[in-house]
Amino acid sequence: MATLLTRVKGRLFIHSRRKSVHALDGAYASLLHGRSLDFEDLRRYEHGDDIRDIDWRATARLSTLLVKRSRATRMHTILFAVDTGRRMAAVAPDETSKKELAIMTVGALGLLSVRHGDDVSVLYGDAAEVRRTPPRRSEGALEHALRTIEGACTPASAPSDRAALLRTIARTVQRRMIVVIVTDEAPISEEHAAALRRLRVQHDVLWITVRDADPVLDHASRGARRDVDSGWRVPEFLHGDDAVRRELAAEREAEDARRAETLNALEISHTEVSTHDDVVPRLVALLHRRAAHVGAR
């Protein structure tokens, strides 16, 4: 059976001559080129740090475990904050589970991070619990993280709780990181915006929205839609109703505009993914925009 990372690699290389992976690799490198994510020469040891990076002389002198800044300067930590509540088990526009797009997103960026020698950690959860995988820089650890996301996100999961994810980052992550938030189309509340504002002070934050499938099908489609939270089934007579579809499209467009306005005001680069085929192009564009913004500061 193919591993999740093998499936991600297959999607990365699906285009001829591997143009997609080269473009994504270049975008990732341009985002991180010349950036240092630490403020001090030494920092306190954190769970998951490589023991080889400990400065033993400074540790003995100050009686606390300290990690050398030389490692932190050339290494980065990419923290993926993934919403694994039951909403992410719903259907995406390409008729696959939204969690599959989340896995593809984390897998693609995580693979590039590992190949560049950077640490990858995944913070994931729902209203019941938020957990985090330790920072690692190996494909085996990334595969484990992807399987963790897959197993955590099911229709039986607790409701999504984006605020809990953001609070956990603010409370537990002291070292400066690049934080990639992977969530769905639920509106950004005032609580979310306030938490993001605090995170932006310390971290470089990116936001990736996983799209929901249209709740009402067109005339040519067959099937049904059921709300993953309530279990409510969309009545069949609504499918193919052009007026209803136009109204829903207008509401989505308005919510997209509100999300973009909030994230732009916070200077958080963002994008949306809808299908497996658009994940890589969207990520390339996102990273290039972010790199250009950083370079313009």
Description:
This protein is α/β, with parallel strands linked by helices. The protein contains 10 helices and 8 strands. It has helices at residues 4-12, 19-32, 56-62, 69-74, 98-115, 139-152, 162-172, 190-202, 242-265, 276-296, and strands spanning 42-44, 66-68, 77-83, 119-125, 130-132, 178-183, 204-210, 269-273. The strands form 2 sheets. Strands 5-4-3-6-7-8 form a 6-stranded mixed sheet, with helices on both faces. A two-stranded antiparallel sheet has the order 1-2. It is globular and about 75 Å long.
Approximate strand percentage: 5-15%
- What order do the SSEs take from the amino end to the carboxyl end, as H and E? HHEHEHEHEEHHEHEHEH
In DSSP terms (H or I, runs of 4 or more residues), the helix count works out at 10
Q: What structural category arises from helix and sheet content?
A: alpha/beta
Element layout with pairings:
Layout: H1 4-12, H2 19-32, E1 42-44, H3 56-62, E2 66-68, H4 69-74, E3 77-83, H5 98-115, E4 119-125, E5 130-132, H6 139-152, H7 162-172, E6 178-183, H8 190-202, E7 204-210, H9 242-265, E8 269-273, H10 276-296
Briefly say what this structure is:
By secondary structure, the protein is α/β, with parallel strands linked by helices. Helix content is 46%, strand content 14%. The chain is built from 10 helices and 8 strands.
